[in-house]
Amino acid sequence: MNPTRPKIPAEAVELYTQFIHGELDRRAFLSGVKRFAIAGLTTTAIVEALMPNYALGQQVSRDDERIRARYETLPSPDGNGYIRGYLVRPFSADSRRETSAQLPGVIVIHENRGLNPHTEDVARRFALANFMAFAPDALTTVGGYPGDDYQGGQLFRGIDREKMTADFVAAARWLKARPDCSGRIASTGFCFGGGMSNTLAVLLGADLAAAAPFYGGGPAAADVPKIRAAMLIHHGALDTRLVDAYPEYEAAMQANQVTHEGHIYPDSVHGFFNDATPERYNQTTAEEAWTRTIAWFNQHTREAV
Question: What is the pTM of this model?
């Protein structure tokens, strides 16, 4: 962030959140942003500051020598096309080969724009933490992430949700069954991906060891008894709609003896983990949430079965 530039108003950041969720169209978003243009901060400058900068947010290079990454495809259920995703494993520089160890797996689920560079970077971060990570692309059936978040969001809204959910379930089971996986898997995701991580916990039951949804909608209370995964919930305190809804989910987990922790991070908005969107990113809470997630997954995917 440029320290000489006036701070982007929180209301403008909220407009961006509504825009990427499809609650505002592009025209309404731009019209709303105009209200916050002041001396030294034009409408164009505000919009550019709110849009993702994937080069800025990259923490692990695609060609980092400590990992090996590739794209994999697997069949959709019932022969309904296929699913493409990004698979990453650690690489041993000493032996100059991919580690042969069976590793716990992590399904990494993108926001509602498809498998963009930020989600792939998060998958690489998990590999450096000694997991194997698979990030499926819900946009596979429409050609995959198009290289632009706005276009990706438009494509995303046209995909059948039942098929999308079935594809993520299939991807999780594919990862769990791989011979280079230990058979213990976890799920994490952001926004839509956080909600889908909660859904996977319901649908996979004991096949999912742990989940760490970031600012995702919770499941229906009636579905919580199906959860067997250890749940680590992350919300930003300023993300009031999800924060206000969380107590019901928390109470249902307590009532059904679901192993869980919930964290509400101060001064943090929806999307606080995404360092490719610096106006939403909160480095302090993002790093705290990441540390907790790695510790949680280590505890619940590497413990004795």
Answer: 0.91
